[in-house]
């Protein structure tokens, strides 16, 4: 723990940790030592980790990287971070992210973006670690912690994992309790681990998941020992390659990576099957209707009364001005855009045309996956991202669609509620990491991680 705390202090330039908790960490590390000495060490005893700022942590500022939560220090601990603490993990601090987890570059954070420890060839320019769990990815890649929590609504664990050469899994919707995790889009949000490798992901995922009476969508299914399922044996497994993911203009390096990953799985004894997921092209538009709709509702609670920031009011300002000024000051541009889009698609005149249509598309996307699983497909292999990490400022706010396109391979998985893992599988010509995604059957994270294990 001491070594990691020193490393974190030396790496301030990466802007990965937005709130450090050294005293608390040392106290918990001592307690972990005592448990180890007493011979009662749980799985993650004494392992130093980082927690994304989206998780509420008792007595420790939890701002979701937003100005509107300035000064908010929760009285409670999220179920997932509590479970990690119970498993002996030692929190080193809170990690940077896009504001309310809305973004793919960490650039919407009120703290400014975290920086990717990787460089493009000899070019010194800063690259983004991806987002929204960009601080988590940067911290794990730069050895500032052994592992970190992330959350994934449309790719926020898998894309930053791919951009930084680490492993990240979004479990099946309902595997991890959402209680105490600041809500973005409740029907899509899931927490998951971001780790150095697949084995660490298996260990940490087991510690994070399980039923929680405080989240009615959390599953009552038993949590398997995921690590024990990492045999590396994938003989006879059927791996689907969806033709719709071979998008126009896909960079040659991504095509090559995908082909190499396919060969690796084949060499390990898997059967490769061409499949079709016909509604894939509608996933991104459907996601960018559903996620903002849910966000506009979830973010209504930030009213200047219940949490965090309140604007300074002028003489004669009433409650309406208080709401308006607080929300105008407290939310950044991207969050405001989502609230506006969400409010629009839910409004009486447009509800059927946008929100209801997007929900129907979501069902079709889910059925696409159900159909291929019914044909005996065990997992689906796709690229995790359409490119390697891009430069800070390269995809500016001026063109949000460019940024949204980053999520093209990941949002389908959230819409269908399936588990998806991003595995680092190589470097491009400029020496930047690239990742492949494996999508699994619902509740079969163990099997999925075992396939990922064969790929790493
Ligand atoms: N980039 C996507 C978005 O901005 C996904 C974010 C996430 O998964 N939290 O909505």
List the SSEs and their pairings.
Elements: H1 2-10, E1 17-20, H2 22-37, E2 48-52, H3 79-86, E3 90-95, H4 134-141, E4 147-152, H5 158-164, E5 167-170, E6 190-195, H6 198-208, E7 238-242, H7 252-267, E8 271-275, H8 283-298, H9 319-330, H10 333-346, H11 352-374, E9 379-383, H12 400-404, H13 411-416, E10 420-427, E11 433-440, H14 445-455
Parallel strand pairs: 2-3, 2-4, 7-8, 7-9
Antiparallel strand pairs: 1-3, 4-6, 5-6, 5-10, 9-11, 10-11
Written description of the protein model:
- With 456 residues, this protein is of the alpha/beta class.
- The protein has a domain of 228 residues: Amidase signature (AS) domain (Amidase signature (AS) enzymes, Alpha-Beta Complex).
- Helix content is 36%, strand content 14%.
- The protein has an eleven-stranded mixed sheet with strand order 1-3-2-4-6-5-10-11-9-7-8, with helices on both faces.
- It starts with a helix and ends with a helix.
- Glutamine (GLN) binds next to loops.
In the predicted model, the low-confidence regions spanning at least 5 consecutive residues are: none
Radius of gyration: 21 Å
Mean pLDDT across all amino acids: 97
CATH topology of one domain: Amidase signature (AS) enzymes
Strand content: 5-15%
Could you estimate the helical fraction of the residues in percent? 25-40%
Approximate shape: globular
Small-molecule binders here are: glutamine
Find the count of extended strands (DSSP E, 2+ residues).
Answer: 11
Architecture of one domain, CATH level 2? Alpha-Beta Complex
CATH secondary-structure class of one domain: Alpha Beta
Oligomeric description of these chains: single chain
Family: Belongs to the amidase family. GatA subfamily.
Subunit structure: Heterotrimer of A, B and C subunits.
EC number: 6.3.5.7
Organism: Shimia haliotis
């Amino acid at each position: 723990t001491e070594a990691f705390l020193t490393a974190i202090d030396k790496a301030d330039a990466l802007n990965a940790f937005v709130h450090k908790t050294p005293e608390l960490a040392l106290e918990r590390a001592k307690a972990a030592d005592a448990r180890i000495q007493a011979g009662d060490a749980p799985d993650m005893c004494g392992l130093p980790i980082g927690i994304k700022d989206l998780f509420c942590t008792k007595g420790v500022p939890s701002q979701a990287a937003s100005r509107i939560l300035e000064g908010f220090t929760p009285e409670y601990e999220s179920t997932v971070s509590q479970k990690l603490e119970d498993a002996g993990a030692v929190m080193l601090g809170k990690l940077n992210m896009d504001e309310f987890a809305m973004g793919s570059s960490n650039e919407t954070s009120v703290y400014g973006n975290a920086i990717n420890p990787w460089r493009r060839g000899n070019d010194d320019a800063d690259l983004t670690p991806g987002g929204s769990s960009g601080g988590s990815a940067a911290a794990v890649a730069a050895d500032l912690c052994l592992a970190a929590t992330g959350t994934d609504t449309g790719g926020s664990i898998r894309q930053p994992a791919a951009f930084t050469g680490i492993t990240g899994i979004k479990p099946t919707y309902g595997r991890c309790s959402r209680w105490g995790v600041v809500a973005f889009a409740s029907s899509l949000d899931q927490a998951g681990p971001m780790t150095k490798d697949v084995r660490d992901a298996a260990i940490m995922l087991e510690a994070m998941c399980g039923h929680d009476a405080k989240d009615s969508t959390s599953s009552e299914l038993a949590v398997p020992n995921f690590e024990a399922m990492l045999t590396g044996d994938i003989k006879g497994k059927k791996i689907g390659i969806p033709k719709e993911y071979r998008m126009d203009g896909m960079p040659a390096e991504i095509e090559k990576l995908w082909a190499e990953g396919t060969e690796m799985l084949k060499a390990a004894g898997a059967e490769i099957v061409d499949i079709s997921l016909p509604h894939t092209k509608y996933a991104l538009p459907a996601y960018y209707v559903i996620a903002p709709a849910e966000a506009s509702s979830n973010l209504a609670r930030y009213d200047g009364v219940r949490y965090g920031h309140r604007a300074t009011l002028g003489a004669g300002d009433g409650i309406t001005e208080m709401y308006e000024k607080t929300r105008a000051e407290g939310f950044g541009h991207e969050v405001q855009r989502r609230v506006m889009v969400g409010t629009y698609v839910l409004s009486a005149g447009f509800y059927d045309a946008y929100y209801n249509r997007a929900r129907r598309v979501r069902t079709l996307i889910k059925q696409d996956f159900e159909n291929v699983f019914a044909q005996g497909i065990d997992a689906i292999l796709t690229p995790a991202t359409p490119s390697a990490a891009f430069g800070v400022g390269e995809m500016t706010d001026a063109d949000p669609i460019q940024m949204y396109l980053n999520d093209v391979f990941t949002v389908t998985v959230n819409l269908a509620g399936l588990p998806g893992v991003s595995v680092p599988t190589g470097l491009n010509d400029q020496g930047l990491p690239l990742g492949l995604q494996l999508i699994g059957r619902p509740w079969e994270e163990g099997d999925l991680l075992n396939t990922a294990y064969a790929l790493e």
